[in-house]
Structures are given as C-alpha cells and as structure tokens.
Known about the structure:
Blueprint: H1 11-32, H2 35-42, E1 52-56, E2 62-66, E3 72-74, H3 77-86, H4 100-103, H5 108-111, H6 127-133, E4 137-142, H7 150-159, E5 163-167, H8 173-183, H9 187-208, E6 218-222, E7 229-230, E8 247-248, E9 259-260, H10 263-269, E10 273-276, H11 282-286, H12 295-298, E11 302-304, H13 322-332, H14 341-353, H15 359-365
Parallel strand pairs: 3-4, 4-5, 6-8, 6-10, 10-11
Antiparallel strand pairs: 1-2, 7-9
Helix pairs in contact: 8-9, 9-13, 13-14
Amino acid sequence: MESGTMRKPTKRALLALAASLALAFSLMLAACGSPSAQNDKQTEPAAQEPAEQTITDMAGREVTIPAHPTKIMGAANPDGIMLYSIDPELLTGWTFDLSADAKQYLDATAASLPKITSVSKWEDPNKEEILSMDPDFIFVTVDLSNTDMALYDDLTAQTGVPVVVGDAELANLDDTYRFLGTILDQKEQCDKLAGYVSDTFSDVDAVMAKVPEASRARVLYSTGDDGTQTCGDSNWNGQFVTPAGGVNVCDTDQTSGFANVSMEQVLTWQPDVIVSTAKGDLASLYGGEAWADVKAVQNGEIYAAPQAPFSWVDKPTGVNRIIGVKWTNSILYPDKAAYDLKADVKEFYQLFYHCDLSDAQVSDLLDTKVSR
C-alpha cells in the first residue's frame, strides 16, 4: 500500500469505538440523574399559590378576599344562617340571641358563639368589634335592586375588612349558594344546598300548574300580640305567601315593619287560611269572639308556623323559609301537594342545619294545625 493512503478501519476497531461511545453516553445519563443533579432541581423555587383572590360579587362590585376564607362575619340574621348551612365553622357569631330551643337543633360549638352587632342600615356597625373578630370578610345578602352599596364600601374603607354582597331574594338563593361555593371553595356542599332550593320551587310550580288562578287560596299572615299585625307582598316578611302559591290578602304597600289592621279589615278580606306567628295561646286567641266570623277560623284553617330552630316563614327572612314555602304549599293545597313532607323536613334539617331529626321531632314540628 502506498505511503499517505488512509487505512480502512477493521471490524474489530469499529466495535471498540461503538463500545466506547456507549460507555460515555451511559456515564452522561448517570450524571444527569445523580443526587447533585436532583438537588439542583429541588432548589428551583416552586410557584406559590396566590394568598388573595379578586372576585366580582352579586352586586357587581370587585372585592379582594383571601384565596381560602375560613372565618366570615354574617352581616345580619339571614346571612349568618346561610353561612352556618354551608359550614358552621365559618361563623364568627350570631347577630341575634339564640333561644334554648334553637340550640337543640344546632351544632354545639356554633350555638355557643357570641351575639354580635349586625351590619345594616338599621344598626350602626361596631367597627371595634369587627376589628377584634378579624374576619376574612363580611357577607351580606340584600335586595340587589334597591340597596345603596355605599354603606359597605365605607365600612371597608374604615376597617379594611372587605364586604361581599349576595342576592337575598328567596327564589334566587340557589344562585347565592352557587356563588358562595365558588369563592369559599365549598362547591360540593353549596351545590347540594342550591339544588334543594331550586327543587323546592320546581315542586311548588308543579303543584300550582294544577291550580287555576281563580281557585288559589287567600292567605292572611297573622302575627303580633293579638294576630292583627300583617304585611303584604311588598314587605320581605310576608313574601313567603306568593312563592308558596297563595294569594296574600294584605294589599298594603308598606315595605318594612308590620301593618296594624282592624278586625273589620280582616272580616273584609275573609282569608281562606291563616298562617300565624302570633304570640301566646293561639287556640284561645282565634277561638275568641273577635275572630268567630272569619272564614278561615270557621273552617278550622289556622296553622301555627314552626319556629325551631328558626321560623319557617319569617324573621329571619332567609334560607330558613325554604322549608316553609313547601310546608305552606302543602297546607294550602293538601289534595294537590302530594309531598312526603316528613322526609322533606328530615332532609332539610340535615342539609341546612346539620341536624338528624328523630321521627318524634319531625311529628312535633309538623303538628301545626290550631284547634279552637
């Protein structure tokens, strides 16, 4: 072979070269998976979850709250009950005194929480108390069509505590629950609560589809010391009647407080049914001479609204009235409303009050007809 001519590599040389390359490649892979390489990866900073979230509440206001709220102040009576239904541990206190009877149906820890000052147009907020509780935010439900939000904006400016607004309309409480489920990361429970609300109105609608307008029961909501205080559809306190399929006989447009009416007016209205939260012995009250000529009394159509742990029809004007809508519908149209009301009551108390009722307790709650 001539000098300067490159020799062709032998087969053995090629195999040796391939083995050397394979060894080098395996060593490189081992180095990538070595503890030092892994440590380098572990020292890379992990992405931190935001501590806050900016939401748009149901009044259209942008509010910044903690990413995972755990302590919330209910601004007024309905708001505390709504928060309790989601999770009793969310509450910072109650804006009203719980009766001994009410406490029997509630979580013991939540029932022992203190009474706190409400945040509303009827009562000056206690800023020092709010600051001492240090809630993640204040939750309030309102009439979205007729509420000045300046009260809540000002309170946040003065305390630094955000206020989140929800819809208080009875028929829209399912939407309010779904909203809360999102911002509280409590979607599963809130979806259950929302479903109960929407199912209740669907059930009532199905009953009312069988009842002609002209045959709808005329209802007097009777309250006060002598039963002659009442309110119409313009007042939140009386707004359980129409959703339950009744016709509220009170035609006053008074939007707050109760109207004091005469027995002459009650006789003019001649209600078919009386739903009462009046005080005292109702059998004696409606069995008296003053009520003797009222149609509902003559026909024995007087019902005492259940009150434990909260009224089924009024005060507070919140989710506690959802079971009352179905109950009222059942007493107005017993032949059309084929509910298993005992099962409905058990489900409601378990879901909203976290309370498992006995059969005896259910029977006691549903023993509502007033005998003269």
